[in-house]
Amino acid sequence: MTDRLAPSGLRARAEALAGPLPPLQAQAEQLARTLLLGGHGRRQSGMGDEFWQYRPAQAGDPGRAIDWRRSARSDGHYVREKEWQAAQSVHLWVDLSASMGFASDRNLPAKRERAALLAMAISILLMKGGERVALASLGTPPRIGALQLRRIAEGLRTPGEEEFGAPDVARFLPHSRALFMSDFLGPLDRVEEAVGAAADRGIGGALCQILDPAEEAFPYQGRTVFTSMTGGIRHETLRAADLRDRYLDRLAERKARLEQVARHAGWRFATHHTNDAAQPALLWLYQAMEGPR
User: Fold this and answer.
1) Overall pTM > 0.85
2) Which of 293, 280, 290 is nearest to 121 (CA)?
3) Mind listing the pLDDT tens digit for each residue in 26-53?
4) Which domains does the chain have, with CATH numbers?
């Protein structure tokens, strides 16, 4: 395993990347907003202390819930609702499958390495904002603190043996947020099912597709042997350039489907290339975890 993915080195690089950005206050769509500097509850009724709004009384509301002073100013009865102040939980699924080990040039990071760096950096920002974070592959609940960052760094070291990865949202907390990071070059049905299942439980989030520039441009010509990272898939052609248009069309269709899946669930979608600077991608993740605009 390369030293670049060692927990100490990974965390140091992630902290350097995260450093210039202010703390992230993630905003939940359904359940909670971050407590940052002791101040902000979510704009949902609940068991906090801060007043949010009045609403008309409904059948079943106890008499003690009615605000008689507000009700005296109108013909109806009104209930005083409060905000629910709670720390946000964020689940990170980072695809560490064999496909994510690809790099078309020795001077480029593998997709897995860039995903791990961004995952660590966004974890640091989230925790600085008071958020609890979990790495899905560890199967543990979202937590905060230096020990949790260490666990996440350790979890990001272990590559998967499968050809392509797929998220599993079974242990995600309802009304939390989620971030999926992958090349999304495997079967999309499992990704679509995971996003749909998450959305059904009130989980908002984002899909971040990470691609090598060669996967975007398809620069191959002449005789070429295409082999998957595990060697399980192999295709040889004498005229690789003839495949370019069909490949680019299929890649565009795949991106369009991912964008549609995200939009339908109220999520966000973007593509990041490993030859681009990591900073803009981290800024996008920062904004995406704030919730829909």
Assistant:
1) no
2) 280
3) 322 222 222 232 333 334 444 444 444 6
4) 3-27+87-288 (3.40.50), 42-84 (no CATH)
